[in-house]
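Quick one - inputs below.
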Amino acid sequence: MDNVVLSRAIMGTSLGFHIVFAVLGVGMPLLMFVAEGIGLRRHDAAWLALARRWAKAFALIFAIGAVSGTALSFELGLLWPGFMAFSGSIIGLPFSAEGFAFFIEAIFLGLYLYGWERLSPLAHWLTGIPIAISGAASSLFVVMTNAWMNSPTGYVASGGRIIRVDPLAAAFNRSTPTEDVHMLVSAYLVTGFAVAAVYAAGFLRGHGDALHRRALPLAMAMAVVASGLAGITGDTSSRFIAGEQPIKFAAEEALFPTTTGAPLHILGVPLPDQHRTILAIEIPNLRSFLTTGDPNATIKGLDAFPQDLWPNVLIVHFSYQLMVGLGLALGLSGLLYWFLAARRRAPPLDRWLLLALVAAGPASVVTMETGWFVTEFGRQPWIIYGVMRTSAAATTTPALGPTFAIFLLVYLALGFTLARLLLRLAQRERQRAPIDRAPRR
Amino acid sequence: MTDLTLADGVAGILLLALTAYAVLAGADFGGGVWDLFATGPRVRAQRTAIAAAMGPVWEANHVWLIFLLVGLFTAFPTVFAALSVALYLPFTIALLGIILRGAAFTFQTHGYEAAGELAPWGAAFGAASIIAPAFLGAALAAVAAGSVHASSGPNVTTGWVSWLAADLALLAVALCAYLAATFLMVETEGDPPLQADFRRRAVGAAIVSGALALIGLVLAWRQAPLLWSELTGRGIWLLLIALINGPIAAFAVWRRSPRVARVAVAAQIVFVLWAWAVGQWPALVPPDFTIHGSAAPEMTLLALTVLIAAGMVVLAPSLWLLFRVFKGRNPAA
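Output:
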């Protein structure tokens, strides 16, 4: 394998690993804050115990997020020195702001995790606010830099050197609004479904105690609101990409010829060499309508662009289909949960529904990861869209193969140990005294 | 002497971030060293004291590194790229150390309650706490000795494998351990036998780090003329202050004044770093990169400075609160 492929493999693995912890770092603080707030307000020991339990799990999750995030800040240079030499001064500002946001999150998390006995209950609850805000801010800042890679603006280059920078124009580029908001709501979506899956599994295994009865509806509330917002922002993103990066859009749709009144492709296998897509369910005119509001609008196909500028159509199309399909299924499962809850005036605990919610946890992670696949694979062959090719940015070091192998092993070990510890932690917590008494350490 | 510019100011801020990382995260790495070498009848108590001291602060201490990296690639992107190419191997190994250290510490402290001792992670915590500062120290030696060049090719060992780098790698570990031992003497003031354990460790680390520092000076004199001329040139006063703090720290450890010792050990690290930085100014990474020649466009530097100032308004009181609650004299536990 050459260095470009290996660099992409290492970076992709690192990002794909980190993002799982990063989204929980955005969403979990909000859940903890709400649970502790309700507990304080209602003097409800179970809500407070829930916040404590989540805090214990979150301590582990946050630390893995922090170290895997550190890996990324090193890897930007270690793998992509050409990219960083060019763009560091342009996109460094949002990264620096992210650094501050992360700093604040780490500081107040230290206070939160170790401060149960040292701070008054109210002060402790309040430390949750900066954690939740800075977690969300981190996501907004760091996605700005990815948005810039899609819509590079705010600089003047001359002979490969950056001679002038407008940091605000670079940070708030054309892709920033859609990417930033879509990622933020997706973080809450994944957190909501991931937490719901844990408690749905608990109910299925007969552990449904007072904590479970509180945790599942709270997580599902976050999940259903976030899926609605993710649907809206996803639609906006999709239509924005149609104008901003028509090649990526055509690859998402696996649309080869430029088409007036383009159909929506559901499933289907793109065959780039034959310039066609087979086995797709086609809904006439729907793609044109969804994208522009006009069923007879013309949508540019891949054939309108030179083939060496095409991304990997197969990966982009499959990822896009998976993201949209799973996203819709997640949204429906959330609506169904609340529909049944509203009709019965009690949280539904049907076995089939709980099973679906258990599946929804990992499915939400897959939805988010495939969303990033669309963004990243869809931008290829560019690292900076229209400006720098990925192949020009990669490092020339000869040691990438072993690096990839070692990092893969490290991430596997971390993931395995973390999963094992979280399971043990849950087991331990269950074996403790019944929750309806005040929690004591 | 040229006038100081915004680029110098940003370089100065990055030096402060490096200093903060070296002292604060250095103490945390040192904690890992003593976790690995915990011995005697109070093994469990030693490890508990280390975990209690690091727990609330290590992640915040670690962020100084992120801050340094991000600040470097924002303000001096070509330098960041050149360092990443030339020092690929030490940085990658240090990074693995940083990942494993943080993960292992978390698994141990937060997982202990659930799963007890986690066999491979306990040793990984200590080993990684040695690997990370050692390879960061070696990388620093390569920069200070002028071995990183703009055109450094894709060779993974050139430039950073030297006797000086080996010595500074060991010195970095020894200083971290020394610093941690004095911090832990402060933390264990209420437990004299445990404090005596860490005092013995502080004495050992003082001897080792003192010897390595003297060897380092000789090596710099014989093998790194650039670094030697920097340290003995403009940096000489700062170097002397660092050297004076050596005996002060050792005496304070001997007299059981850990608070004085803690400051004096930290001062050695701080002033050596500053002597190097001031000595090599206006170079950022000698010989090819000067602060002015490699700085980002003015608007970036200005925006970064404003951002840091604004960020500090939020950060400073937050950090104060963190250390006030957990490192104050009267923890209200």
